[in-house]
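[PROTEIN RECORD]
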Amino acid sequence: MKNHEENQQLLHRIRRWVVFIMVGLALSGLTAFPIQIAFEWLLPMIKEAGPSFPFYKWLLYVAGGVQDTYHHYPFFGYGTDWLAFAHLLLALVYYGAWVDPVRNQWLFRFGFVACAGIVPLAFIAGPLRGIPFAWQLIDCSFGVLCFFPLLRALQLTKRLEKRQPHNFQIATP
């Protein structure tokens, strides 16, 4: 009985990390929908803070681009809608790791590949798109920071896998 309780505690810890990953993906996706509205809301604060605000000139430039684009070419927002949708789908995919992390540990490895892919994407596409180097580093930080919850979830999953008898099935909710 003690072994079963320890397995359940381990499963609970894994699921907390998976929920953390899912929430991060979902929030990242949800923030992509209201880009125009967010800039309309943030722009007065940025202007009030003045040039001492981090990335002041860059954010004013981006806000102007967003306003102009959405005014003249609102269909470009459709691209960020798809970006948001992809993040929400990825968050949903991780439900498989929540249900049965041992069977679906491939999702953690998939996450590692995605995290690693952020760095070259930022450093290749960033300069091509005129993104400031410091902003590219911020973008890279998402891949670096997400790596650690994925790693912890995989480590705990490996421990659970070793503890489980081969015929042990995790009860699905």
The longest helix spans residues 133-163. Residues 2-35+78-163 form one domain.
